[in-house]
Design brief:
alpha/beta; Rossmann fold; Arc Repressor Mutant, subunit A; 2 domains; 6-stranded parallel beta sheet; elongated
C-alpha cells in the first residue's frame, strides 16, 4: 500500500479527497490535516518513528505557510520524498517555484480522482507529473515580473474587491496590500490597480 497524507484547509475538499483516494486498492490515506505546519510536524513524527515515507498531497493556498514552502520543509526532512501540489491557482510562477523546490507533481483541482490517484503512484515511484495545460501556459507566457503575492492581490482586485477585502482574503494587512499593488502597478506601467489587473490577466500572469 502507498501511504498518502493530505493537507488542505478546506475540510470538505480534504475529506472528499481522502475518501476518493481510499477507494483505490493500492492507496491508503493515513492522515489528513488542515495546515502546512501540522503536516510538517506529522512528517517529523513519522520520520522519527520509522514510518514508511508517504506521498504528500498538498493544497497550494494553505493558511500560514503555503503548499510550496510546506513541501520544501518536508523535502528538507526527507530528501526525494514524493510531494505533489494541487491547486485552483495554476499560475506559471507557482509552477516554476514548485519545480525549483523539488515538488514532483503539480496539477489543478479540476483533475479527476482517477488521474490524481495515478499521479500519486507516479510520484511514489520516483516520477514526475505536471498538468500539460499548466506546463504549456508556463512556457508560452514567459517570466512574469510579479511576485506570487502581487499576482494574488491583483487577481482579487480584478474581482472588484476593496483593499480591506483583499487584505482579509489574502491574510495580510491593508498596508501590505497597498504595497503589493503599488509594486505591481509600477512593474506593469499602469496608474491604477484595475488596469494593472487587466493587463496581468491579458498577459496570462494571473
Amino acid at each position: 500500500m502507498i501511504p498518502v497524507i493530505l493537507a488542505d484547509d478546506e475540510t470538505l475538499i480534504r475529506t472528499a479527497l481522502a475518501t476518493m483516494l481510499d477507494l483505490e486498492d493500492d492507496l491508503s490515506v493515513v492522515a489528513h490535516v488542515a495546515s502546512g505546519e501540522e503536516l510538517v510536524e506529522l512528517w517529523k513524527t513519522r520520520s522519527a518513528t520509522g514510518e514508511p515515507t508517504a506521498v504528500a498531497v498538498i493544497d497550494l493556498q494553505l493558511t500560514g505557510i503555503d503548499g510550496i514552502d510546506t513541501a520544501s520543509q518536508i523535502l528538507a526532512i526527507t530528501p526525494g520524498a514524493g510531494t505533489l501540489i494541487v491547486t485552483s491557482h495554476g499560475r506559471p510562477g507557482y509552477l516554476k517555484r514548485a519545480l525549483a523546490a523539488g515538488v514532483r507533481g503539480f496539477l489543478p483541482k479540476t483533475t479527476s480522482s482517477a488521474n490524481l490517484a495515478e499521479v500519486v503512484r507516479r510520484v511514489h515511484a520516483g516520477g514526475r507529473y505536471v498538468d500539460p495545460e499548466l506546463a504549456a501556459e508556463a512556457i508560452g507566457t514567459g517570466d512574469s515580473p510579479l511576485t506570487d503575492r502581487e499576482a494574488d492581490v491583483l487577481e482579487l482586485a480584478l474581482e472588484g474587491a476593496s483593499i480591506e477585502d483583499i487584505a482579509a482574503r489574502a491574510h495580510v494587512a491593508p498596508g501590505t496590500v497597498r504595497n503589493y499593488l503599488s509594486a505591481a502597478m509600477a512593474k506593469l506601467g499602469t496608474n491604477n490597480r484595475y488596469a494593472a489587473a487587466r493587463k496581468a490577466r491579458e498577459l496570462g500572469w494571473i
